[in-house]
Amino acid sequence: MKVPYSFDAFFDSNQEESVSPFLIPSSRSWGRSLALKASLFSAGCLAISFVASFISDPIAWFFLSFVYFLSGTPALIGSLEDLCSFELNIDVLMTLAAFLALAIGSQLEGGLLLVLFELSYNMEELVTAKARSTLHHLGSLAPRSALCVQADGHMIQKALRDIAIGDTIFVKQGETIPLDALVLDGYSSFSLAHLTGESAPIYKKKGDTVEAGAKNLDRALHLQVIRISRDSTLTKIIRLVTEASEAKPKLQRFLDHFSKLYATSIIALTAFFSIALAYLLDLPFWTYEGSLYRSLSFLIAASPCALILATPTAYLSALSASAKKGILLKGGTTLDTL
After folding, report:
1. Residue pLDDT, tens place only, 273-297
2. What is the spatial distance between Cα 187 and Cα 47, in angstroms, rounded to a whole number?
3. What is the pLDDT of residue 68?
4. Which of 103, 148, 197, 275 is 20 to 30 A (C-alpha) from 7?
5. How far apart, in Å, are the Cα atoms of 325 and each of 128, 142, 319?
């Protein structure tokens, strides 16, 4: 059974739009990073709602409904999935605070929490999508098969997984080297720009090693395979990029580690304050200045929206700034090391 593509994964796979009956060529412009665009549109609606709140409440509520629908729906679904898995984390805390803000008449503050939450999540997804795009590109560099030279001199097309160490393969001019191999005869130059960043072609002669993914520029060559497909240089690069993209930065790991304890503590304190303040300070429970209102205000104020938003934003900005200067970093963990 084939797994369906998301919009970004479909575009990164470089397939034609005709493969999917639901896509047309013009959809690439608006379909890419669709979730992030929805959260940005939600932020715009929140700004309009804030301005309209000074003019007309119905207009303000109209635009605010888009905020709660576009940003609140995915946050609510994700939180319900976490709760069904008996997991209480900061995501649940943020969503709970945002929707309970409606109960105390702070709908704009709740909308702001949802917008910040979704912006943070979608920017984090954008970093992951860029890593996936790199993997799709690297994976498409090497061919899926190669011309294998038999003992009698005949050539047959074989899948890379069926080629063993010591087999002889034939690579024509302009083709990509499928596996790490030794040059058996002749010489040629190879482009490794997409692997190492080296723009000048590399000259290889008899006895030299050629890495998988290198492009043969000059003439056809016979090569002897020295590494099978799963051990090739290109496969190792893909594995490193995958591990780097899945490894979270140090600060994010710290937040994830303490998110469950923090969220549980804040929700427990909110429940405690709503009951204790009514008895200790002799406050009413339901009124505007009552203990429930004050405890919900505490819950909203304690939601770490700024920290959650700042973490992926800082790393994304650093990665983008480095890329513009020609420095390609494999992920946030590299920045931690620096």
Report:
1. 888 888 887 777 776 677 888 888 8
2. 64
3. 92
4. 197
5. 21, 28, 10
